[in-house]
Each structure stands twice: as structure tokens, then as C-alpha cells.
## 1
Amino acid sequence: LADRIGVKKVLTAGSLILAVCAVPLFQWVDSGSFVACLTSQIVFAIGMAMVQGPMPYAMVQMFPTQYRYSGIAIGYNVTLAVLGGTAPLVSTWMVHQLNDATAPAYYLVVLALISLVAAIAMKIDGSTEQ
């Protein structure tokens, strides 16, 4: 999909899906229905695939060749450690503070909105269709 319509468009759409759908899908999962859980997981998987699938290409395009390896390594791994590593702690704290089992969705919305802004600001096209 990213090859056909462009990396930036796919990243933007995936971030938007996650930002808009996170809270309702978390609430739907909390209903306890198998169909709700399965459908929610499929929508989350689609949104995450739209963000994570084209990400390697986008990161390669963001750095000049001489700094590419270090730029990608630092950018990806620091973000993953700081945000991904603390996500369970932050989510547990939010559930406790807000007394709401769906509170981690708010964290996901904030991060998806940051990703959306970053995707919109990207200076790459990424369409490789010929």
C-alpha cells in the first residue's frame, strides 16, 4: 500500500486510525464479547501495520547516508526504550489514578497524535510505483 499511495499517506492514515479508534476499541474490548475483542484486535493490527510497515523506509529516507545507521539506531531505540519501556508502568498508573480500565487508550491517543503530526511533517513521498 505504501508503495502505491505513498509512505507519508499510509503513516498518516495509520496514526489517525489509532488516534480516533483507540478509546472506543478499548471500551469495546472491555465489554467481554469475543467478537468485540477479535474485531478490536484486527482494527488495532491494521492501524499498527500501517504505522510499523512503512517505518523502516521512512527512517532510511530521513537520514543522509553517512549518518543513517546512527540516526536510525538512536532515534528508534531511544524512543522505544523511553515510551515503549515505560508504557506498562504509565498504563498501570493511569488505570489506578483514573479508576478506568480503558485509561491506557488515552496514552495511545496522545502517542498516535504525536505520530500523526510527525507523519504530516515528513519531507518524504515514498511512492515507488512506476
## 2
Amino acid sequence: YAFKAPAVSAKSRFEFLSREAFLLVNNVVLLVSTLTVLAGTIFPLITDALNLGKYSVGPPYFNAVFVPLMAFLIAFMGVGPLLNWKSTRTQQIKRHLLSVLLGSLISVGIIAISVLARVDTWSVLAILFAFWLICSVAVDLRAKLKNAPTLQRGLRRLTASYYGMLLGHIGFAVCVLGVCIVSQFNIENDLRMAPGESAQIEDYRFVFEGTRKLTGPNFTGEEGIVQVYQDDALIATLHPQKRRYSGRGMVMTEAAIDPGLWRDLYVAMGEPLNDGAWAMRLHYKPLVRFIWLGALIMAFGGLMAIIDKRYKLKLSLRQVATDEVGRVA
């Protein structure tokens, strides 16, 4: 594109308060975010290859540079769908943004009061950002359906690429919710558990029933039996494993997982202790599945945009023109 830029004769003018400008800002932020992740990933490899020492780039780096970028991106993503192409009147965007802000604040209040066990600044901000995106696409959808004779006809009139945009923004909001909630409300307990002992995490009670011998095709080991109760009702029986592989004698830990849409429960075995007890690690991860669910929704939104008939029409017209030129020649 850079080499061909001087040959582009068409010029497009747009104001800052326009969809083009906000798409440009979003693309720049996404590019900077990509370079940030790339730099943090390959920096230790480069320093090690050049014998400059061994460095480790971990969560503090990514939290310091990536989280502010994503917050900035979400702010612009929430405004972008509400803008017109080329230019937007200030009064129009103010009215839409007020509706989005009110919807976001009401949603945060409802969730904080009825769902969250404890309220902190980061979880409130994450929920606010997520519903900022969701409410913005809802306000935009309402504006597009305002003049439709019926709701069904209005929805049918919208293009596949528009639905792709809706799904992309909603998927990103779901992903944001999952990342922040699991990072703020994740619980990890490392403790000693003997057969018959129990541990409580949130509403779940983990009861260690003991271990049994385990024999596989190329390993031997121990398999734990952990029963999980919620309100005195048995909801899962987990079997974490400690494997010893033959040959190199490697010892591997196989965690047991009880998956769910709203939370995942993990149990992992550490080292054996005296009197049949084991070092155990218990995890409670709320909304961790939302991270993957949001990614799937975004991917489906991309597929929806790709199948838009307008792009196929342009391609077919171009092919007809090419065939006509060839016929004349």
C-alpha cells in the first residue's frame, strides 16, 4: 500500500468526529498492542541469544502496558458505532452517549449489588467498560430499527457485515468481563489434606477421600479422589493425578477440572506428606470460560462480515466487466 500510495488519485476527507477517524484510532491501538505483546515475547529470547543475560517478562509488564491500551481501545470502540461516516453532529452524539452511559451505570449497579460478592475498583471498571460496548451497539441497533415498519423487517434489512460488527463488539465485551473477573476473584488455596478432611472455597466444599494406585501404558502414579459439594449436594467427583513416567523418570501433575459456564473448579496434587496426607492446590476461577466464549463470538462475527452479499456482488460485477473486455478484445 505504501508503494502504491502516490498513485491513488481519490482523496477522502473526514472530520475527527467520524467513523473513519475512530476506526483509524482503533487500528493504531490494535497495532501498538500487537507490537507490545511481540516485544514482551521475543525480548528474553533476543537477550539470551546475544548473551546479554537472562530476562523474564511476566504479568507486571503486560499489566502496565497492555491494560491501559485496552481501556483506551474500549472507549473508542463504544463511540465508533454511534458516529456517521465523514462527519457527525455534536448534538447527535451527545444524546447517544448519554443513553450509553446511563445504560452502563445501571448495569454496573445491578450486577454489583446482586452478583458480586465484593466490590472493588477494578471489577467495577471492567463491568463498566464491557457494558459500555454492549450498550453502544444496543443504542446503535435501536437507531437503525427506529423507522422500520416492523421489528422483523428491520432486522432483516440489516447487512451481514453489520451483524458481524455487533458480534465482534459483544464478543470483546464478554472477553473483557472474563479476563477481569477471573483475575480479581480467582481463589487459590495450597493446603495439606489428609483423607476425610475438607476445605471450603466460596460455596464449594472439597472433601479429600484419599488416593488409589494408578497404572498407565508408560507411567505409574497416584490418583486422588476429591468430592465437591455445594449446599450439601454432591456436584462433582474429581480425580487429580500424580504420574511418574518410565524411562526418564519424569513426574507430572494432571489437574482435575470441573468446568462450567460461570466458574471452573481445579484440583491438583502436590507432594505426598506423612500419614497419607498430600499437598493439594484448589482453584476457583469465576467466568474463566467467558474468555474463550468471547473469542468465539468475535470469530463468528468476522465470519458473518465475510459472507456479506455486497462483497460478493462487487466481485461478480468485476468478473463480468473483465469477461466483457476479454470478449471485445
## 3
Amino acid sequence: MANGIKTVIYPVKDLAAAKALFTGLIGAQPESDAPYYVGWKVAGQDIGLDPNGHKQGMTGSLAYFHVDDIEATLTALLNAGAKMVQEVRDVGGGRLIASVQDADGNPIGVLQDT
């Protein structure tokens, strides 16, 4: 079951510049600030900057649907015609992410907190 889009990740090439821009936009310092990820919580939503996103094939921001069972959700998406882009991986703290593309090439992220 999907619990809505609660996370949006932006791939960035210059983490410091992107951090400054988003800090100004959001009006607060990030809650997570590491060389591999900078993130904020805004009105119950996670907004993140990923300096490795372009290397992993991201071409723009990716919205993640939070789901109860990432494997079952991926199976359902693939059975409905989606194409796997990124297999399930743990990005820390038990958070699992994966992404697919629909028939029109639109990216769909799925995320499960374990």
C-alpha cells in the first residue's frame, strides 16, 4: 500500500551551492548534512540533495512513494509494465529505496522504512 509521496530527492553536482539555494528557499538549516546527502523536513516531507544522483542515472528530481512492502510494490509495478531502473538498496538506517520507469519514461521512486 502506498502512503503518499513524502520524499523528493534532487541530484546535484555542486552540493555546497545547492545547499545554500535550498537553505534560502526553505528558510532553515538542513537536518541532515553529510558529504553524501543533505536533507530537510518540511511540513512532513523529506527534501534531499544527492551529490551522487547523476552518477546513478538521475536526470532530475525523483519523488518517492512511501510503501509498506517495497518488494510487493515493485512486483506489482513490474507486472503492470514498469521497467526497473534501480534495484532495492539500503541507503542507511534501514531505509530501502528503488525506482522504475512507467511506459512513458516517467520515473517512480518507492521507499520503505524498516
## 4
Amino acid sequence: MADLASALPPGRVTVQEEALQAHAGDKWHAAALPEAVVRVESAEEAAEVLRFAHCRRIPVTTRGSGVGYVGGCVPVCGGIVLSTMAMNRICEINKADGVAVVEPGVITGDLQDEVRRQGLFYPPDPASLRECSIGGNIATNAGGPRCLKYGVTRHYVLGLEVVLAGGRILRAGGRCHKNKTGFDLLGMFVGSEGLLGVVTQATLRLLPHPPARAMVSAGWRGMDEAAAAVQAILGAGHLPSALEIADRFTLEAAREHLGANLAPEGRAHLLVEMDGHAENVCREAQWVSEMLAGLGALQVEEALTEEACERIWGLRREFSYGLKATGLVKLNEDVVVPRSRLVDLAHFAEKLQEESGFPVACFGHAGDGNLHVNIMVPETESAEARRKIDAVLDRLFCQVLAWGGTLSGEHGIGLAKKRWFAAALPEAARQVHVELKRALDPRGILNPGKFVSV
């Protein structure tokens, strides 16, 4: 790596053990040491790294903040980890154009805070928004609770600067909110998990920030009633900005973690958020509250101020931490099913728990069918544990696919779901993936060992 170090500014390349360990994995259980970590601060530096690696067939795994759940940035083939976290500038916020131009290392929550100060809104809101980066969000097409009304990261990417495997710098899209010129190159890179190029800048669509929001929190006797309420809300013509559900195990863990009187009542929980102008939002919150009470909710609470809404969201954000506090390892499977299958998925999760002996906790985005099925296991290291876990995941993923669902709604495939990728797509679609990979990365240096190889 000495030749590469000499071609870049001082300090960009490190082979120190501590840095290699820090860049060996993400929040999934697998890890692998790279040979070097290269920290780039511009597209030109990234291009220099990729030219070097392409000529020598050295693997390059791009890494953002490293908080993914599927091993997407694990450098399984060694080589170089290309860190974009030093590229963390918000280059421009233009209210007239409704755009932000940012580098990939910008933390999502920081961008949201900055645009809000100017009366603007960047809706994608993954649970890790205070630690995940825009580059990682683009790589996985990250979502979050607001997907129901506002969509996912893909819907907010207007332009990209991408460094290709051989070092070419591609600029696709721009700052126009509508653009039908040529192929949809943006859609090809958003969600590509670092297999097709390295994003070095993004132009993102911004919206006017909603003047007000309100929330309704409701406790239920079980998931059947809560899921039925989801359909009732949407069937009545409401389009909440978020519609979240949680099951009994999740609630019990939250009560243990936070205290019994702080977590919602019941064996299932439904959270509904509305946004817009204050008068309309308050009226809609009242309608939804009355509807849920009429459907048999055990407890209905309205939050009509920013502070009250944040308190309820604070509880929702604690669900994951409550599960971690059980002392079990949380395998977070972000499957998606058609919304009509929510109850079926909840029942199937209970069946998996009975069959495997592993507790299963379900919570997530009921409005778009993206329910996080968390398999809670004592450990993942032994061969016997991995065998049992894979058997449970086989059952889960096969059933989800049989219902017309998908393996991932927002975390991606990475290493964790690589084994099931072939079953998730028809042969022609898989072949097109390979052909695209071969065209853009003919030597297969970008994030090798993941779900598409050449």
C-alpha cells in the first residue's frame, strides 16, 4: 500500500491494527480484517484509490458510519476499506430550489436539524438517524417510520456523484425535481450496497416542513386488533405520516427496561402520527382517537404538542434498546409483507417462537407492511446456534416470499441475507444484476463476497 499512500495526502492510508479492527464489521455479528483503511476527503481521492485497486485487482469495501444490520460493509475479501466519513460537509441548502447538496459522511439527523432551521424537511428517518450517514442511507435505500406518507431515500435523491470501479467520476441527475433524460441511473445506485460505485456527493430533495404534528397512541388486547385498526385508519381515508405497531414481547421488554408505568398498556401497541397545518392535524387526531376507541382500544392517548409527540417517539425508539436489555442477541429481520398479511406474519412469528424456543419480537412500520421480526437468541457463535438460527430464518424468509413479500425493506441484503437472495428474485432479474455488476465493475473489486459476484 506504500504506492497508494504516496499518491494521496499524508495520513490517508493506515494499516494500524486498531484502525483495521474498528473497520472490520458493523452491527451484525460477522467481521473480517482489511489490509488497509483509506480515509478519503474528495471524489478525486476516491478515484485515485479505485484506479489503484482496479489495476491490481484489490478488493475495496466502502464504509460509512458502520451501523448497518446485515454485514454490508464487512470486508470479507480483505483488501481496502474506503471510509467516506471525513467527507461530511453540507455543501449547500437552497430553499428556493428545495435541495440540499451533501457529502456521504453527513449524519442523517444533522442534515434534518440543519434544514429544519430553514423551514425545510428531509423526511427519511431511520431509527439510527443520529449515527447513520447519508452515504449508508443511499447504499441501502434506508427508510423509517415516515415511509408510509413520504417514501424512502430513493424518493429524495435528485442527483449523485459516483466514482466507478476504474476511477471514472459519474454525475447523474441534477437539482431538478423532475428529470426524464435517459436511463434512471440514480435508481441503479440507490440501494446498490456499494457493489456498483462509491457515492461521493448527493443532491437531495427537500420539502417545506409541516407546521404541526400530532400523535395518537393506543394499547390493544392483541396484534389482531391492532392490525385491524391499521386497515380501518387507512380505509377511512387517513394517510398518517407514521403508523407503527408493536407486539407483546416488545412491550414486556420495554416495561422491564423503562418501568411498568412508562410503557403502553396491553399486549399490542399502535402509534399514529399526523402532520400538516395545526387545525387540521388536531381535528384528525381527534377523529383517529375516537375511531380507535370505538374499535375497542384499551387505552388511547393524544399528543398535540411537539414535546408530547417527542415523548411518545422517545418510547418507540426505546423498543429496540429494551430488547437488547434482555441480554439476548437481537437478530433484526426487516421483512416486508403485503399489508393484508400483517396478522398472518404476527401469528407466524408466534409459531416460530413455539417451534424454535427462541423468543420472537415484532414491531415496526405497519402502514407499509415492513414489520421487523426480531429473533432473540442466547448467542450466535457456536455451530449449533448458527444451525438453529439458519433453520428459523429459512422458515421465516420462505414464508414471507410465499406471501409475495421481500427479504428486506430497509437494511439491505449484505452478508446476513445473501443465502436467500437467489430465492427472492426470478432468474432473469438475478442475471440482470450480474450483467450490471460486470459492466460497471468488470474485475469485481467493489464490495466482493456479497450478493452479486462476477
